[in-house]
UniProtKB/TrEMBL annotation:
Protein name (Swiss-Prot/TrEMBL): 3-isopropylmalate dehydrogenase
Transmembrane regions listed in the UniProt entry: none
The protein's Enzyme Commission number: 1.1.1.85
Biological process, per Gene Ontology: L-leucine biosynthetic process
Pfam families tied to this protein: Iso_dh (PF00180)
Quaternary state and interactors: Homodimer.
Stated family: Belongs to the isocitrate and isopropylmalate dehydrogenases family. LeuB type 1 subfamily.
Length: 359
């Protein structure tokens, strides 16, 4: 598309990545185009194929110029999934995905957990409508900073230390983001989950910061739960949750449990946000190598992620159309097999795109 034709459109950098990432992103782009959202897409071939061909992960990774280009030239980045068994070190995925999260400082990873239909609900004792909350995961610190030491490798004295880095600035901004999200979406409660009874130093900081930020939002009820208890409660009584905020590692783990509550990884969407900066949107699932190239991957996680991206970009009308079409696909079982349908990736996306175009 030429510059003239692009005028007035928001530019989106698209990184399909590896495995089913390529299929679900193609599916989501079809739906985005059907929505008539004013977007202009530029696709990048970053992923295992490119890495194996010329050793490039994300061009401009080392001097960070690649990330600055994304921030300068694009309104958002839309990513499929990264990870390929031919790259056992996973270095390309780390540099592309964690690179964006860390070097673009996308500190809030927002993962909604919403069960759209009774047919997707894995719980006997709760209704689908009772599973509706948002997890906000810290995205730039914690155990993910890849710091630590390793001594005495192979000896009985071997010791491996992995450092959990939590800064006041990092904790405070993500906790505040969670409260602001609650206010913006009319949600009444924010719960912080940690393991401060054991990780007294790192999570002691989370405790202090959470209490002080909570005091700024008297209209929102603030509470706390240890992460082990939270896992049990997410299964036993999910309706009690509204917004949950947590550190990077616990957020990674509890959002997979959250995905199971919404019908599986194929349904789960996520946004990696720094308010006011170019943010990145990706489905929660990985590249699922055994499913790749078979037209079996569920595209809904990626399509719901596209809807989150539109909402973030201020395109609420188009975003809502996509959400309505997803709901219709789920209700009519115009879906892939993992959520009870009999369609392939392409046909499921085509149904959703048709609904969107008609809306
Ligand atoms: N954000 C990311 O890009 C991301 C996230 C997780 C894992 N990974 C990478 O993906 C690769 C595979 O990892 P994994 O197997 O642990 O996780 P995965 O999410 O790829 O797959 C886990 C399970 O969920 C199923 N699944 C996932 N997405 C699905 C979809 N859209 N439709 C239907 N079923 C779906 C898979 O078949 C598999 O059974 C690894 O290289 C891993 O590092 C990448």
């Amino acid at each position: 598309m030429g510059r003239a034709a692009e005028q007035g459109k928001k530019r989106i950098a698209v990184v399909p990545g590896d495995g089913i990432g390529k299929e679900v992103i193609a599916a989501a782009l079809e739906v985005l185009r059907a929505s008539d959202a004013p977007l202009a897409f530029t696709e990048f071939d970053w992923g295992a194929d490119r890495y194996l061909k010329d050793g490039t992960t994300l061009p401009g990774y080392a001097d960070e110029s690649g990330f600055r280009t994304l921030e300068r030239d694009f309104a958002a980045v839309f990513v499929g999934a990264l990870g390929d068994p031919r790259v056992p070190s996973n270095v390309h995925a780390k540099e592309i995905l964690l690179g964006m999260r860390f070097k673009m400082d996308l500190y809030a990873n927002v993962r909604p957990v919403k069960c759209l239909d009774e047919s997707l609900n894995p719980l006997k004792h709760a209704k689908a409508g009772e599973i509706d909350f948002v997890i906000v995961r810290e995205n730039t610190e914690g155990l993910y900073v890849d710091r630590g030491s390793h001594t005495g490798e192979g000896t009985p004295q071997e010791m491996a230390i992995q450092e959990d880095v939590n800064t006041r600035k990092g904790v405070e901004r993500v906790v505040r983001y969670a409260f602001e999200l609650a206010v913006r979406h009319g949600r009444k409660k924010v719960l912080m989950t940690d393991k401060s009874n054991v990780m007294t130093i790192a999570h002691g900081l989370w405790q202090r910061v959470f209490k002080s930020v909570a005091a700024e939002f008297p209209q929102v009820t603030a509470s706390h739960m240890y992460v082990d208890a939270l896992c049990m409660q997410m299964v036993r009584d999910p309706k009690q949750f509204d917004v949950i905020v947590t550190n990077n590692m616990f957020g990674d783990i509890i959002t997979d449990l959250g995905a199971a509550l919404q019908g599986g990884l194929g349904m789960a969407a996520s946004a990696n946000v720094h308010p006011g900066k170019t943010s990145m949107f990706e489905p929660v699932h990985g590249s699922a190598p055994p499913l790749a190239g078979k037209d079996q991957a569920n595209p809904i996680g990626a399509i719901a992620t596209a809807a989150m991206m539109l909402a973030h970009l201020g395109l609420a009308k188009e975003s809502e159309k996509i959400d309505r079409a997803i709901l219709e696909a789920v209700r009519q079982k115009k879906t892939t097999a993992d959520v009870g349908g009999a369609l392939g990736t392409k046909a499921s996306a085509a149904f959703i795109a048709e609904q969107v175009a008609r809306d």
